[in-house]
């Protein structure tokens, strides 16, 4: 089987994902929390993590990067998940647009700007001023309405280094037990460090559990998750469907929506991710999701890279990367639209080869 | 009659405009050319013209402004054309999105960013570095493809103070006789001043006629017109139609397209403007257009504000404003979609009244 359905997956939703008019939206942003050494491997150094979202979407859209000289691939050749999502876009021809919720480094491709700001280090100060948080949310709802009035389904992905840490902080601040349950791009999830950062952030904020999700995000969150929540509200308000394409970070989006009393209806909202993330034993996507949304619907891509001829790609099956830039959702969509696993593998390898052709050899 | 057809208007094009899936796109930008005293009345002072595009689209989308304390209305009560376009959006429910090609002051609403830059004063230096000009053009084509793949027709409007002056400069630099033929938001078109500025710009650039339209725009243009040309190319490339919603500035867009050997086919590209602009005796829209595009198709809105109860609105029939923020194109579209002139007038007056209710009385 190519796609596994868990929970209350709606057949009508799947039909729309299979053949409806879809758009892929990638929300980018940064948080200075990513500068904490060891918290993320989404960048060759802590400082370079600020370039990752911009480089990810430049690569996704144009197949090359402008803000950094080479495409986002680790020194030992493990590429950004944007590569897999790009292969899916090329196969399905689903139109794609980037939304900037607040980035320190801006991409040199077009994007929809929400007039947000980059998030601060959640240990040392509020992530976002409350008025900035409200503006991102308000503008995201309006963009969501615009997108929702023109498509049948919107696939929402994200790129924000250290996003699992701020996601954990958001969920904890909203009263959910997210401690140590979020995922990581590394096979060695730095769970202890993440928990310590979240504890420090919550202590600094001076509130254990927030009633208002916007206050929680303003205190210990980041621009991306509140943007995703606003987009979802606007899209569904227009009668359109949303596929949240991501891992444990999307649980944080659902936690915000739940606290806003949004109707979490699997007819209109489902989540999709990868097998790499769901079957990871160092995180607990399904447990976390069940706690936040008892009626959840989850689509899992069973696509694997274990048979790739490239070690950099096989690494995905060894616990590296796992999710990001909408990879899981785009894989699920591409599989449901009738492309075989081997067709996807070929396209991924073709795009991977182009990276190395474009990099001058030493 | 509500809409007048001039030139090679295509019935199929009109049918799509009547009932197709439409989107309204407003391209904003600034040029420091607007700081020349007397060149434009699109702002209470030369410095404030840099706020006008941002304020226009904030008002268009949200019905209020954030970058300036009160909505864009002159001290004696003549409102921005964004008011009329907003009334048309409210009636037709056509989704609307803003594209930023390069603004000194950014709006606090969402927009698609083309990674451009504000234009410099064309008398004193190149308007845009050539790589910035190329990036705007490249990114606009991609955004155009995105929009074109999702709609049947795109209505393209603009807001750039002093845009008629840079439009004249672009057309002259491409070898067309645009001297003194462009329009003005003022009933007293400062034609002499505009011609002097264009002459200075052309002299400074050191080239009489440019072969490459991107070089011409880089030298004596601005970010908005090249963005509109790129968007048009991308949209039509996706099999979608474009209505250029504007006055003599849209002639500059057509001049760029013509020099790029773009197929100017009225089946896919037409222009719409207002009666206020076309019948103005201080400019020559039809003469200019005929010179650039012998096969042109022009739709003219016959909507008038002479019967309004408000002097600020009646001023439109006395030669003020005339065009901008896609007003003519949105009026044509709204009329073709079956709304009567009196329905439009009521909605315009309703929105006009809200401006004064929102302004604290002195």
* Principal-axis shape of chain A: globular
Largest sheet of chain A: 8 strands, mixed
Report mean pLDDT of chain A, rounded to a whole number.
95
Stretches of chain A where pLDDT is under 50 for at least 5 consecutive residues are none
Rg of chain A to the nearest angstrom?
18 Å
Please provide the count of β strands of chain A: 8
CATH architecture of chain A: 3-Layer(aba) Sandwich
Report on this structure.
Two copies of one chain form a homodimer. By secondary structure, the first copy, chain A, is of the alpha/beta class. Chain A has an eight-stranded mixed sheet with strand order 1-8-7-6-5-2-3-4, with helices on both faces. Chain A contains 14 helices and eight strands. In chain A, strand 6 (241-245), helix 9 (248-259) and strand 7 (269-274) form a beta-alpha-beta unit. In chain A, helix 3 crosses helix 14, helix 4 (130-148) runs parallel beside helix 8 and helix 8 crosses helix 9 (248-259). Chain A is 43% helix and 13% strand. Chain A has a single domain, classed as Nicotinate-nucleotide-dimethylbenzimidazole phosphoribosyltransferase (CobT), large domain (Rossmann fold). Chain A has helices at 11-19, 52-62, 82-92, 130-148, 163-173, 191-205, 213-220, 223-237, 248-259, 275-278, 285-292, 311-314, 327-336, 341-358, and strands spanning 3-7, 22-29, 96-102, 111-113, 153-159, 241-245, 269-274, 297-301. Chain A binds chain B through residues 21, 23, 61, 95-97, 100, 106-115, 135, 139-140, 142-143, 146, 149-151, and chain B through 21, 23, 61, 95-97, 100, 106-115, 135, 139-140, 142-143, 146, 149-151. Strand 4 (111-113) of chain A pairs antiparallel with strand 4 (111-113) of chain B.
